[in-house]
Structures are given as structure tokens and as C-alpha cells.
Design goal:
Order of helices and strands: HHHHHHHHHHHHH
Radius of gyration: 28 Å
Largest sheet: none
Structural class: mainly alpha
Number of strands: 0
Length: 324
């Protein structure tokens, strides 16, 4: 083996140094073995090839930086899946139970925490995994949605805080690139970057829809900041549509994007069924927005809550049916 090391000192020193190995040393080692197979003999050639593969594998996969990154990525992916599943369950419970009671509040808190964990890990995975950078914007928008929805009912009506103003800055920063890109595509201007996926058809519709949602959120934040807060039915509607949209995005990530990847290729789910959970959430959102903004539900709900908080109310008093 010493004779082999002397015959290829450069390649051997690189391989045994433990430094990250690129295509050049690997190819040099392979070419050396191929050229000198007869001189080295079958045993030495095989031993050298095995040693090269061992060192290359250790250098590429088990160097401290790469191993740590791989471990963090696996942990982030696991947290992303678990948090997304928990968020879907908690969000479904929050939608179904009576609004404002203890179960609704607990389910909503679990939903917010789970969605934050899911979105933060999605942002991390979007950065470390190639071709996923678009998920960085989606994850950030999801964080914005659940945080502002939580703040809408956490703060007293008609009040405003620093976090609300910071949220406006965040959504404007998200809106700027998407608005510019949508304008360029709508007017036929060539985008200043190359997309790996053609921006046409469903992709173009999704881009316009995402830009519209961001614009609506930005307008709502600007109106609230200028007014100094939000009250009444508008406050509940703000909480409602942002929470439900976050739930719809989680459903899309799970059923439209994640589930088809986990199933065998022989199993085919119709496209309409993949989007069905999102449609159900969006239909629920529309139902509750109409009920909150255009009926007397909010007034009666607020009156019941005020009555329930008044001292002397009998413990366990039943609320009227249909108050969910």
C-alpha cells in the first residue's frame, strides 16, 4: 500500500485528509486505478478502490458540517409533518366547536403554535433544499396570517400595538415582489429571472391568486393601522378569515403536496379529491364571513358573552342552540 501511496501522492493525500471531496479527486483516483490495475495487481486495486470509496463517503456524508446539516434537515422535516398534522386536527376542532368557549380557545392556541412550527420549518427547508425557495414566501405568509389572526382577538377592541405595525411592514415587503411580478406577467414584460417551471396556466392563476390575497391582507392592515384598531364584527371577521386561510394552506400542503408523495406511484388520487379539503375550508370561511358580517350573529354572540361574564349567572347555564 505504501507503493500505491507513492504512485499517486496528490490524490491519496486529498482522499485521506478528510476534506470535502469534489468530482476532480474522485475522477483522478478512478483513472489512476484504471491505468495501473495491471501493475498494482487485482488485490491491491480492489483494496485501493474500497479505501477510496470509504474515505470519499466519510468526507462527503459524515464531515461535521454536512452531518449536522443533514441531521437538522431530517429533524426539521419531521417537526414540519407532525406540526402540520396537529395543526389540521386543532384547526378542525376550532371550526366545529362553539365559538368563544374553552375548547375553542384551547384548540385555537394549539393551532397557532402548530402552524408556527410548521411554517418556520418550511422556511428552513426552503432555504437548505434546492428548488424550494418559493416555499419561503408561503411559509412567511402563513406565519403572518396566524400571528395577525391571534392578535386580532388577543388585543382589546379598538387598540393597536407595535406588533400590528410590524405586521404591516412584513406584508408590504411580501407584496412588493409579487405585485411587480404579476404586473410584468400581465403586461407581457419578461421577468428578470429564469423559472424552472413555466409561469403559465395553473401556475399563473396560483401566482395571481397569491398576490391578491397578500394585497387584501395589506389593505386590511393599512386600514386598521390608520384607524387605530378594529372593533365589532370586523374584528371577528379579521380573525376568522386569516385563521381559515392558514388552515386552507395547511390542508393544501398536506393533501395536495405531501400525500401524493407518500403514496406509491401506482396509487393515483384524482386531482379534485386532492383539492377537496381546501375547498371545504374555504366554503366554511365564506359561510362564517357571511354570518358574522351580514347577519345578527355577532350582536347576539357578544350579548351572550357579556351576560355570561356578569356575576350571578347560574353556573352551567345553556347557551341558545346555533351559537357555534
Amino acid at each position: 500500500m505504501a507503493r500505491v501511496r507513492q504512485a499517486m501522492p496528490a490524490t491519496w493525500s486529498v482522499l485521506c485528509s478528510g476534506a470535502p471531496v469534489g468530482p476532480r479527486p474522485v475522477c483522478s483516483g478512478s483513472r489512476f486505478i484504471a491505468r495501473n490495475a495491471v501493475a498494482l495487481g487485482p488485490a491491491a486495486s480492489t483494496k485501493l478502490e474500497c479505501e477510496c470509496r470509504r474515505v470519499i463517503t466519510a468526507s462527503l456524508l459524515w464531515s461535521p458540517g454536512t452531518a449536522l446539516l443533514k441531521m437538522l434537515t431530517n429533524v426539521a422535516f419531521a417537526v414540519h409533518v407532525v406540526a402540520g398534522t396537529l395543526g389540521l386536527l386543532a384547526g378542525t376542532v376550532a371550526v366545529l366547536v362553539r365559538k368563544g368557549d374553552h375548547v375553542h380557545r384551547v384548540a385555537g392556541a394549539v393551532f397557532v403554535l402548530a402552524m408556527l412550527a410548521m411554517a418556520l420549518t418550511a422556511d428552513y427547508l426552503a432555504v437548505v433544499r434546492p428548488g424550494q425557495i418559493v416555499n419561503l414566501f408561503i411559509g412567511t405568509f402563513t406565519i403572518y396570517l396566524v400571528v395577525t389572526a391571534w392578535l386580532a382577538v388577543r388585543r382589546s377592541p379598538g387598540t393597536l400595538g407595535l406588533a400590528d405595525k410590524a405586521a404591516l411592514v412584513v406584508i408590504l415587503c411580501l407584496l412588493a415582489p409579487f405585485a411587480a411580478l404579476s404586473f410584468e406577467l400581465a403586461t407581457g414584460i419578461k421577468p428578470p429571472f429564469k423559472s424552472t417551471v413555466p409561469i403559465e396556466g395553473p401556475v399563473l392563476i396560483a401566482l395571481y391568486s397569491f398576490t391578491l390575497l397578500i394585497a387584501l391582507a395589506a389593505i386590511g392592515d393599512a386600514r386598521m393601522v390608520l384607524a387605530g384598531g378594529v372593533t365589532g364584527a370586523r374584528r371577528i371577521a379579521r380573525h376568522l378569515w386569516r385563521m381559515c386561510l392558514g388552515l386552507a394552506m395547511a390542508a393544501g400542503s398536506a393533501f395536495t403536496n405531501g400525500l401524493p408523495r407518500l403514496l406509491p406511484r401506482s396509487v393515483h388520487i384524482p386531482l379534485i379529491l386532492q383539492f377537496l379539503p381546501q375547498f371545504v375550508v374555504l366554503a366554511t370561511l365564506i359561510y362564517w364571513l357571511i354570518r358574522v358580517r351580514f347577519t345578527g350573529w355577532h350582536s347576539s354572540w357578544a350579548a351572550r358573552r357579556s351576560t355570561a361574564r356578569t356575576p350571578g349567572i347560574a353556573k352551567g347555564q345553556e347557551q341558545p342552540a346555533g351559537s357555534a
